[in-house]
Amino acid sequence: xxxxxxxxxxxxxxxxxxxxxxxxxxxxxxxxxxxxxxxxxxxxxxxxxxxxxxxxxxxxxxxxxxxxxxxxxxxxxxxxxxxxxxxxxxxxxxxxxxxxxxxxxxxxxxxxxxxxxxxxxxxxxxxxxxxxxxxxxxxxxxxxxxxxxxxxxxxxxxxxxxxxxxxxxxxxxxxxxxxxxxxxxxxxxxxxxxxxxxxxxxxxxxxxxxxxxxxxxxxxxxxxxxxxxxxxxxxxxxxxxxxxxxxxxxxxxxxxxxxxxxxxxxxxxxxxxxxxxxxxxxxxxxxxxxxxxxxxxxxxxxxxxxxxxxxxxxxxxxxxxxxxxxxxxxxxxxxxxxxxxxxxxxxxxxxxxxxxxxxxxxxxxxxxxxxxxxxxxxxxxxxxxxxxxxxxxxxxxxxxxxxxxxxxxxxxxxxxxxxxxxxxxxxxxxxxxxxxxxxxxxxxxxxxxxxxxxxxxxxxxxxxxxxxxxxxxxxxxxxxxxxxxxxxxxxxxxxxxxxxxxxxxxxxxxxxxxxxxxxxxxxxxxxxxxxxxxxxxxxxxxxxxxxxxxxxxxxxxxxxxxxxxxxxxxxxxxxxxxxxxxxxxxxxxxxxxxxxxxxxxxxxxxxxxxxxxxxxxxxxxxxxxxxxxxxxxxxxxxxxxxxxxxxxxxxxxxxxxxxxxxxxxxx
Length: 667
Known about the structure:
Structural class: mainly alpha
Strand content: 5-15%
Number of helices: 36
Shape: rod-shaped
Helix content: 55-70%
Radius of gyration: 54 Å
């Protein structure tokens, strides 16, 4: 027997809501309880099911995805009462479900058109929940949660909020045993943000499609504090692997989840055989890596699983070139270290960081220290040293701080790198000497640096004050110089004589060879770049030397030497050529003369009488002739004749020496 109920209207005119358990109507406005009257209609008793039962079975078949059975029962609904509310609901529910099974676009359009037709009829004929519809739902009885789940999908499609509210009140998610119904219900609940239903569906783990559910929860469930517990119920290696790495890479890029949630997912994936690309993950979430802690947790989670060397290198490049935050790079290197991940850093990666980073000196220093904890071969390290020492454009104080890290004891810096820096680089200014000290403290074998000091002395890369300091340093640590450079230093250096002598002594102690013509070159420089120094003469004359007659003449006539007699004697003893025939050019009393060195000295000497007398006597002792021929303005005459003709022009000293040597006598 079918039962129809006719509701009395509330006296206040408010909307009545039916309480199926108490079987009463309650006014939503004033709370008045309104009894309902039952009228009993005669039903068929010929063994044919009532329309409500057939509708119930139709909707149950749809809920369990038994579409063939649903189709047959829907035909029965049509025969019994094609205008019945349940028949319309059956058609809408069936065709909605069939859309997902369509094999062509034509089939999709066909089912969609039917949904539209039946939906229009339903909305026209049953605009609100009426008595017949309530009777239908009550006739379903217990154990029909699957039907209500399916009906929620129907009413969501129709955007019928009042029916959604009503059906939701009757739904018990724990009683849904259809995986298909739960799948559809989950989608609607997430769309409607009815998270109580979402959680109820997920809790019913034995009767849900876990793969689909995990996918929907990850992408669409927003409540972060509950989400991980829900994911824990759904997640397994098998389910994750079924979803595939492409889904998870999209999740990291598209999900609005918190960084904490994504870190947990990364960690969970590490226990599967699914290998998402580490670089893709970091690129997707780097904008959320807003602190050292978050960044460290991301990298640590990634390295719970095997990460290829290529991915590690790609991550390093990404951190260096894209996400240049100090804490991100620090977190990455710390995670690698803690996870004992193998990474061989290339010189290019380190140079890129050193050259492009705008970090503070302390931060840059910290990162470089961490980089050098990893595997870097000796050749690559030297490439780094060479580049940073000679090409990097950091502020000199930043450079010094970084070089303190790079130039550690035992570092494999090459001789070529050191030479390039010392001889060619001036960017460190006053810090340069400290950096050279750092280089030497590494333990580099200075023996193989060869002519470093020679090359540095010949270079023009540093200003004088800096160059003087560095030169002194190099000398003090034992460098010698090339003999030609040694001569050039003596001749051309603007060092004070005392400084020069100290350096020369050390250079000679270091093994610098003194060329035979070095003393001669020094004498020639007197009056041009140097003032004569007897001490320097003594230093240079300790070695074998050669001096020409012309240079000897210059020494005698131009060098103010307090020890001239002794020095002259030393020079005389070294000259092997015939000084009588070795003529020098000189002037006297406005005349251009050519004669021997003795004649030139007697006429132009400006030393004291005792010095001149001693030197002249020694030269005569060496058989140098005073009264030999001289050339005066192209004419050749005897020296006696010249001094006699120019007696008035002789200095008192020259006159005295000439008299003592009988230049005015006839014989």
